[in-house]
Amino acid sequence: MQNSLDDVYGASSVANALRTLVYLGGRDTVRVTDVSDHLGVARSTAHRLLSTLRGHGFVEQVPGGRHYRLGPVLLGLAQGRAAVESRRRIGTRELVRITRPHLERLRDAAAETSNLLQLDGPDAVFLDGVEGPHPLRVAPRTGDRLPAYTTAGGKAQLAELPWETVRMSYPHGLERLTSATVGDLDALEKDLAACRSRGYALNIDESVTDVHGIGVGVRDREGVCVAAVTISAPSTRLGADRAAGIAPLLRETAEAIGSEL
């Protein structure tokens, strides 16, 4: 009777899936026969199980072969866990304390508002900011929370994660804050790929019309991305060319902060 109940509720399938993931976790790659032998099930059952896990991003098939390995979802969870542990070790107040003088120097060098942002699930939270010197300037948004994909700092951090992890953070799609906000997951995937390619993220009218931003991720001493620094300015002063010119300042700032974490 108990075995029947297990089958009805899928408990045995769940158990096999978990055992498979644990088995994969201790190996670089496995074959269908390895999984079937480990679980004591038919090869067809092992194949269906691996195909289901692959469909959800928990495992992936090695290109050009019949081997499987851990997929982007689990790798993303591991990265996310590392980031959480790093944040716990540092603490928000300590991060802000360490970052503040660097934000001030960045503000002075760029003559624009500088900010510190951190991912919190699907959102980016503005932890601190230093206002720029111009009469027409962007005010810091310290304490504000926005969808991460609408901010330069949020996108800089999303670009550090496996795509499947990002996709699963927005199961209901993307909400547009302005007409320029990236509208769907396919467009976001391309945007994040561009961020990785050029080494910085851009926000062009995506959270507030006529406000542009550029962001770079901050990595701690272990290489874990724990936050991002950004420059925000009116669109009239921060076009693509100036953003490219400011990017080295942001990278230097992010590296200087990371060396103290």
How would you describe the overall organization of this protein?
The protein is of the alpha+beta class and 261 residues long. It has 2 domains: 69 residues, Orthogonal Bundle (Arc Repressor Mutant, subunit A); 181 residues, Beta-Lactamase. The strands form 2 sheets. A 6-stranded antiparallel β-sheet has the order 5-4-3-8-7-6, with helices on both faces. Strands 1-2 form a two-stranded antiparallel ribbon. The N and C termini lie far apart (56 Å). The mean pLDDT is 88.
Summarize it.
By secondary structure, the chain is an alpha+beta fold. Helices cover 49% and strands 18% of the residues.
Q: Which keywords apply here?
A:
Beta-Lactamase, transcription, 2 domains, single chain, 10 helices, Arc Repressor Mutant, subunit A, WH_DNA-bd_sf, DNA-binding, DNA binding, WH-like_DNA-bd_sf
